[in-house]
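User: I'm writing a short report section on ligand binding and want a predicted complex to refer to. Could you take this sequence and flavin-adenine dinucleotide and write out the structure as tokens? A short remark afterwards would be nice.
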Amino acid sequence: MDPAAAHLLHQYLKKEKIHVMLHTQISNLYGISRAEGAELTNKKYINTDFIVYAIGIQADLDFLKNTDIKHDQLIHVDQAMRTSTAHIYACGDAVRCDGVHASLWKNAEQQGAIAAMSICNKQHEYENAVQPLLFQHDQFSCFMAGNIRQSDQYVECLDEENSKFEKYTYQNGLCSGALLINRKEQIPYAWNTYQSKAAYPFAGK
Ligand SMILES: Cc1cc2nc3c(=O)[nH]c(=O)nc-3n(C[C@H](O)[C@H](O)[C@H](O)COP(=O)(O)OP(=O)(O)OC[C@H]3O[C@@H](n4cnc5c(N)ncnc54)[C@H](O)[C@@H]3O)c2cc1C
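Assistant: Sure. The structure tokens for the complex follow:
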């Protein structure tokens, strides 16, 4: 996430009495019939009622070991969802299409449709597109579209007092991403600016 947006999210979580520990890892978990505690790399110990862990997901591709289907941690497919072996198609979270791992519902759905069309000899090419995301929790909302991390230019407006933030990124003078924090009313404008690849509004700056 963008640093200014991450700061606003952090402030909101603090207000909700959710303690976020940055730059910290769990080194040990304790408990026999249930998780009773976690030890951190900084030697602190936290008593726990339960532990929810989210440590990343990786496709189990062991079954491809003795095949010619090109893969590493992901199956390599082209834009028609063809693997390196004729008549074998793959799509969704387990694939890397043209070097990109999308890992979102909409992308998986589109890839599934393209794979089905390819199997039926209908030519359609998948275009890697970063899908818009909307996260909403009570008084906090975050909308993201496109690439907000890399840009040649950007325009942003931070209203820290009201925890509002708006940012547009530009590549080669055209809008390549939009980020809104607590500005849901701006979503149609932001989505349109991103989708229409609107030009950078301050030429030369
Ligand atoms: C916690 C979480 C939250 C998410 N939230 C969002 C979100 O808000 N928005 C969004 O766009 N995306 C979200 N995603 C990502 C989204 O769920 C995936 O991109 C999407 O489900 C990928 O679809 P898929 O069909 O490729 O894989 P999956 O939906 O994972 O389906 C794969 C299926 O294959 C089955 N399977 C696995 N191995 C075998 C085997 N050997 N034999 C037979 N069956 C097998 C699995 O049981 C599973 O049913 C989230 C993912 C997670 C884990």
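A remark for your report: The longest strand covers residues 164-171. The pocket of flavin-adenine dinucleotide is lined by residues 57, 92-93, 103-106, 108 (CB under 6 Å).
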